[in-house]
Design a protein that fits this description.
Elements lengths: L9 E2 L6 E2 L3 E3 L12 H14 L3 E5 L6 H9 L8 E6 L1 E3 L5 E4 L3 H15 L4 E6 L8 H13 L3 E7 L3 H10 L2 E7 L11 H8 L2 E5 L27 H21 L3 H11 L4 E5 L4 H8 L8 H10 L12 H6 L5
Parallel strand pairs: 3-4, 3-12, 4-5, 5-8, 8-9, 9-10, 10-11, 11-12
Antiparallel strand pairs: 1-2, 6-7
Helix pairs in contact: 1-2, 3-4, 4-5, 5-6, 7-8
């Protein structure tokens, strides 16, 4: 897979750091959607880098370290091609359960030490807490990452799923490169309050869930271990209603000669040059289809038509379950 035409890069916030307009989200390569093949995952990472993708996104808790080790294997001999965005702070138990968040300064530095080793690199390009730790002031967490920057272990500080007040408090301690947050045709709540503040402060967006975990491409949970089975939008009582809007997307996509997933990704790309969508491909075929979205141009009239046909307010079910929604600082 090679780049056949020039792709205009995008800047992450006000950092001066430019990246390919799509980033590769690697979470699905470590079992979150069911079993994945390591060799195919590594081949997918290589194909993305060969195409020109520059930013890889992971979390130290994806597969309890498996994802970072996988990326470390993939990057041997390729470290100069990739920028790494790493989330930390989610705590796991031996049985794979989730047991809270830890963003204390000592924990921040401990997590970073292990990530550097697993990834096989001497620095992390963007380091971010995966969730706000309600027991730790965000100033303390950001201050610890700032110390890692001074020591040369981290280049930039990012945030994930936090709200306006937390963003402002974090920015007051150290410049923030970007906020990672779910954003798609059917998850548009950041537009109201969060995005205006990010634009005011010169903070970029790395948008995950741009296909709403496959819902917008027609994918549904099937494999054992697919966490989507627990998400409200995929529950039987909501799925039928939501699939009606997926059909609307399919029709619009067909009229434009593209796939629904390409149209959904292109929509996110068109919503602002400060937005870098994360595509969660774990196979080369998925990657190739998603990358073609950068070639899709949408007029303002087409954007209006798409948004009218798939209104976010009509989608049944929240993006996470009730417990997780309450934990999201971005939803408060």
């Amino acid at each position: 897979m090679t780049t056949e035409h020039r792709i205009e890069l995008r800047e992450i916030g006000s950092t001066g750091l430019t990246v390919f307009p799509l980033a590769l989200g690697c979470m699905g390569m470590s079992g979150m959607y069911g079993a994945a093949d390591d060799n195919e995952s590594i081949a997918t990472i290589h194909a993305a880098l060969d195409y020109g993708v520059t930013l890889l996104d992971t979390g130290d808790f994806y597969g309890t370290g498996h994802n970072e080790m996988l990326i470390g294997r993939a990057l041997k001999g390729h470290q100069d091609k990739a920028l790494l965005s790493v989330k930390f702070g989610a705590m796991r138990s031996p049985d794979g359960g989730w047991i809270g968040t830890d963003a204390r300064p000592s924990a921040v530095k401990n997590f970073a030490a292990y990530s550097l080793t697993r990834l096989g690199v001497d620095h992390i390009d963007i380091y971010r807490p995966a969730r706000l730790d309600p027991q730790v002031p965000i100033e303390d967490t950001i201050g610890a990452i700032a110390e890692l920057i001074k020591a040369g272990y981290v280049r930039y500080i990012g945030l994930s799923e936090v709200g306006v007040d937390t963003i402002r408090r974090a920015q007051a301690v150290h410049p923030i490169s970007d906020l990672q947050i779910e954003y798609s045709l059917i998850s548009r709540s950041p537009e109201t309050e969060i995005f205006p503040v990010l634009e005011e402060l010169g903070i970029g967006v790395t948008a995950y869930g741009v296909l709403s975990r496959g819902l917008l491409s027609g994918s549904t949970p099937s494999a054992q271990g697919d966490f989507r089975a627990y998400l409200p939008r995929f529950r039987e009582e909501n799925l039928a209603q939501n699939q009606r809007f997926v059909e609307e997307l399919k029709q619009i996509a067909a009229s434009k000669g593209v796939s629904p997933s390409q149209l959904a990704i292109a929509w996110v790309l068109a919503k602002g040059r400060n937005i870098i969508p994360l595509i969660g491909a774990r196979k080369r075929t998925q990657l190739e289809e998603s990358l073609k979205a950068v070639e899709v141009e949408l007029s303002s009239e087409e954007l209006t038509r798409i948004e009218a046909a798939i209104p976010a307010s009509a989608i049944a079910g929240t993006r996470y379950d009730e417990h997780q929604m309450k934990m999201l600082d971005s939803e408060r």
